[in-house]
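Aim 2 progress update. The chain analyzed this quarter is reproduced below.
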Amino acid sequence: MSGMNAWILDFGMNYKAAVGGRELFHLIDVPVTFDVPHAPWYCRKVVSWQGRLLPVMDIAARLSRLEQEIKFIAVVGYQNNRGEQPEYAALQLDAPPRQVSVTDDQACDLPENSSGWEQISIACFEYQGEVFPVLGLNKLFNAKPVLASVQ
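Predicted structure tokens:
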């Protein structure tokens, strides 16, 4: 059985996930970003790419609430509905992505302690002893922010 291509993304702080082989469009290795006032803690920057301002999501900050320095930005594309023009956004990375080949045999469940991943992932697979959630990009970028309850 031949595998599907995926990109493994390292968000830093031991947070890693994957996107489909056709969802990663560009890697920016010296990103210039701009602050967005009043934006959620995990998406406080935008980057200019091909005449568009793209939101830059920090997955590690979203899951841990700890912000970190931007080293790389991955421009990703997704469709909200089949046949529509793609939407573009950006993910903050700690290291360059790596491409792998994945088969259905590698599918697995999210780990028990996967707090936060279930809200933004659509699948999960095991590769070389590590478990990688597969991001649902339309789910991730169209989700309403999860706000901590005030007590």
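The CA atoms of residues 6 and 71 lie 21 Å apart. DSSP finds three helices and eleven strands in the chain. These observations will guide the mutagenesis experiments scheduled for the next reporting period.
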